Amino acid sequence: MSEKIIRLENITRIYQIGEVEVQALRGITYSLDYSEFLAIMGPSGSGKSTLMNILGLLDRPTSGKYYLEGVDVSKLSKDEMAAIRNKKIGFVFQNFNLLPRTTALENVELPMLYANVSSKEARERAMEALAIVGLKGREHHRTNQLSGGQMQRVAIARALVNNPSIILADEPTGNLDSRTGSEIMDIFCRLNLERKITLIMVTHDPVIASYARRRLYLKDGLIIREEVSEGAENEASVSGG
Amino acid sequence: MKVFRILQVSIRALTRNKMRSFLTILGIIIGVAAVIAMVSVGEGAKQGIQKRFESMGTNLLFVYPGSRNFRGVATGFGGVNTLKPEDAKAIEEYCDAVLATSPSISTRAQVVYANKNWNTQIQGTGEKFPEIRNWNVIEGTYFDETHVASAAKVCVLGYQVRQNLFEDEEAVGKTIRISKIPFKVIGVLEPKGEQGGFFNRDDMIAVPFTTVMKRLRGVDYISSIDVSAVSPEKTAEAQRQIEELLRERHRIAPGADDDFQVRNISDVAQSAAESTQIMTILLGSIASISLIVGGIGIMNIMLVSVTERIREIGVRLAVGAREKDILLQFLIEAVVLSVGGGIIGIIVGVGASRMMKYISVFQGITTVVTPGSILLAFLFSASVGIFFGYYPARKASRLDPIEALRYE
């Protein structure tokens, strides 16, 4: 069996809110190949954000196992999780989450500050990443001088700069108009096709989701359905809990 | 190095909010400047006193009436009137390590000349006072043995008194009134300067000690004896001889306590320096309270800053910052603030202590800035930054990345 980039085994996540237990995930089992493009869909409260947090190592599952590139990462310490986020995962958020009053370049350099990259190399790599997302010549613009689409491009460059295995995007087009949104999606598709970066995206917009080859539908903390676009070779192993 | 990179990030964050950063460090600036200026005043007084004693000569000794147990009641140092003018005469006569003695007794009195008047110290001395204290007469002469013997109404003016009463006028030969008694001015002492720090040695009038005893105070004792040894090396021997002689003269039984004390100039200088040291510590600690208040200001602003930047912290955590990276960033920001304030404070403090002599209230105060006080103020301000910056920094580092990213 070829190695999977992500393997989830019966992942649950229970939030304790006062006396009440909320089951956000009720047992997710799923695996994903390298270089895939996956969209996670579902109504609000379906657990898709919780799943993203666990996939992105911002949160730990209450039970179950999460293998990232074959390594069990479900029981790591906070610092170990931070190190993996830094090296293997890039984040793109709906509201961009750029640092205020900084330049595009400074934002893209940020992940390398925590990766022991020399400032010279960090600068070179940041320039390169900005060129990939089409922002050559705007490196020194401040974030408040950029349009929404440009800000999201900066965020993608930031996610890209440490050569991650996965980019996780949470409603990446949610704050953009449809034209800018499709530009952003084109960048994602290009990264997926040309650079073989695995992409996982949360969205509720079926048009945006249609860019992905696979679409996973969540409801009440369970996977209810998976769709694979034409040209799918190997069946993803799906089993509802 | 990574710390250096984080330092750059911190400085960039602080310069983004220049006005706020400046107001935050103002507390530290004032605190450090106050510590340095206050300690420089104390240090100036201490060095002034040392210089003053040095200028008196190193072969000087003082005899004071000492503590004596009288029916079980200790009267304490200087509390008894056991020293007599005859003791001074005997010391000079029988102790071969002693060169000269001058009995001393003083009082304060109102001095009047023409339409001017002045309140000053009336210092009763022997005729050898200028020689013992290394203090020259610049106008006229000092009084002699016959003046002392007859308790003559003559006086020699300290330079400050001469300036106050006579200004440009000739002083020698004039008559002034001390406590309404007419005294003839026969000389003026050279100015010794204001090295004392808080009291001016030129603000005095020297008269024969017999005159103070008989005419001004009506007592039969003296308050101390100035003694000069034949050489600085002989002071210890002189001290022993004086003690032996006075025990005999005062009929003190073997084993009983002395009713006098002989101290040499370095002892006296040291105890004077000790008392100014206490003052320095007092001034310094009052000033350092403002430094602590400044630290609280830093903590306050850092807490505000952490709250404002929760989203930023969330992003940093998401891209791989560890807890200690965030802790270090905010701690370094606090330390940069306090150390920056410390450096500006040092400059302001040194400037203030230099300026002090130009402000009339502080006239006569010498200030000395020591490297020690600068170092102390600097280290103190840095540790204030660490101490008050730690709590906000820890708060920032403990944030949950998911909640921080979602924070509005």
What does this structure look like?
The complex is a heterodimer of chains A (241) and B (408). Chain A is of the alpha/beta class. Chain A has one domain: P-loop containing nucleotide triphosphate hydrolases (Rossmann fold), CATH 3.40.50.300. Chain A has 7 helices and 10 strands. In chain A, the strands form 2 sheets. A 6-stranded mixed sheet of chain A has the order 6-7-8-3-9-10, sandwiched between helices. Chain A has a 4-stranded antiparallel sheet with strand order 2-1-4-5, with helices on one face. Chain A starts with 5 loop residues before the first strand and ends in a 13-residue tail after the last strand. Chain B has 408 residues and is an alpha+beta fold. In chain B, strand 4 and strand 5 (116-125) form a beta hairpin. Chain B is built from 13 helices and 12 strands. Chain A binds chain B through residues 53, 56, 58-59, 78-79, 82-83, 85-87, 91, 93, 97-102, 110-111, 113-116, 119, 158, 162, and chain B through 2, 5-6, 9, 12, 16, 311-312, 314-325, 401-402, 405.
